[in-house]
Amino acid sequence: MSKRDYYDVLGVAKGASAEELKKAYRAKAKELHPDRNKDKPEAEAQFKEVNEAYEVLKDADKKAAYDRFGHAAFDGGMGGGGHHPGGRGNADFASAFSDVFDDLFGDFMGGQRGGGRQRAARGSDLRYNLRVTLEEAYAGLQKTITVPSSVQCTACNGSGAEGGAEPTTCPTCSGMGKVRAQQGFFTVERTCPTCSGLGQIIKNPCKSCGGAGRVQKERALSVNIPAGVETGTRIRLAGEGEAGLRGGPPGDLYIFIEVKKHEIFEREANNLYCRVPVSMATAALGGDIEVPTIDGGRSRVKIPAGSQSGNQMRLRGKGMPGLRGGGHGDMFIELAVETPVNLTARQKELLKEFEELSEDNNPESHSFFKSVKSFWDSMKG
């Protein structure tokens, strides 16, 4: 029986990215794992099929060979030894195929393709999540944070060798970081197993760092948080990530800002919104109220007579500052007319008397119920 297409096995399109292939593989492997399908004997074969497909497609060289030649790239159809794609002998088919061209044209083109040892590994980037208040985001601040990370070993100055001695050239690959082996017609190039591609080895590793050239340590860093930051703002501190392996350059530190919710203000971009309750009498008669501002001050706002819930008033320039300049946003006051509760008998009496005299004082209610009456009349007709 002919083999299924590897892309069909994983359920992805032929142009799928490495991340899409990985995601599809994980989903399929989880779904078909024999431990989860003890009542389905065919699941084990399908599970192996998924693993075989991913073993080929996750490797750029093998994937390139498969895209060009299909299963023939690994089953002997291209003159190979008929090895399984997951095994050692098949294949590095694409690598071997490209090595033929390296051997033929490498000197002519000015050197080997991809030859030479790897450089000392760069340190990893780090992420630090920092929560600030809305007031801090408004004013900006200088904050000291503690970051656990790898730092350069001081005992060996990052070399990984005891006493800071220089590493020696790897005897297996002669400092190239790669070794070549003959497999039938092809010459296959692989990363040197002795030095892991670095081209150098350490005969006497540093006792403090075990030869890594870096150690774990907490560092205190002073961070400048500019005014106007919002949730999702990212601050990059170059060179403040993990130290590189064996003297390699350090990574970067990325600080992700999260602005806490405020009990009074709600933020939208650079504008602030504040919901202010007002009494029914103040809304009807008008008046002045004092509202807080994010800088800790107060602003006096005039409430027009006849104001309704939801009405907004703008205080220009009382919002958040722009992160990259451009002035401040605005602050919007939203009125919430409050209905009185726990009325006394006298208050109820006065409200009933007021209601009897208020036929022309509620235009929205009058208009609504007039429309309702017309609707009901039309339904009867």
TrEMBL record:
Residues 140-218 form the CR-type domain. It is found in: Cytoplasm. SUPFAM superfamilies: Chaperone J-domain, DnaJ/Hsp40 cysteine-rich domain, HSP40/DnaJ peptide-binding domain. Its cofactor is Zn(2+). CXXCXGXG motif repeats lie at residues 153-160, 170-177, 192-199, 206-213. Pfam families: DnaJ, DnaJ_C, DnaJ_CXXCXGXG. One of its GO terms (molecular function) is oxidoreductase activity. Residues 5-70 form the J domain. InterPro entries: DnaJ, DnaJ_C, DnaJ_domain, DnaJ_domain_CS, HSP40/DnaJ_pept-bd, HSP_DnaJ_Cys-rich_dom, HSP_DnaJ_Cys-rich_dom_sf, J_dom_sf. Keywords: Chaperone, Cytoplasm, DNA replication, Metal-binding, Oxidoreductase, Repeat, Stress response, Zinc, Zinc-finger. Zn(2+) 2 binds at residues 170, 173, 192, 195. Its main location: cytoplasm. Zn(2+) 1 binds at residues 153, 156, 206, 209. The J domain is necessary and sufficient to stimulate DnaK ATPase activity. Zinc center 1 plays an important role in the autonomous, DnaK-independent chaperone activity of DnaJ. Zinc center 2 is essential for interaction with DnaK and for DnaJ activity. Belongs to the DnaJ family. NCBIfam families: DnaJ_bact, PRK10767.1. Homodimer. This is Chaperone protein DnaJ. It comes from Mesobacterium hydrothermale. The gene is dnaJ.
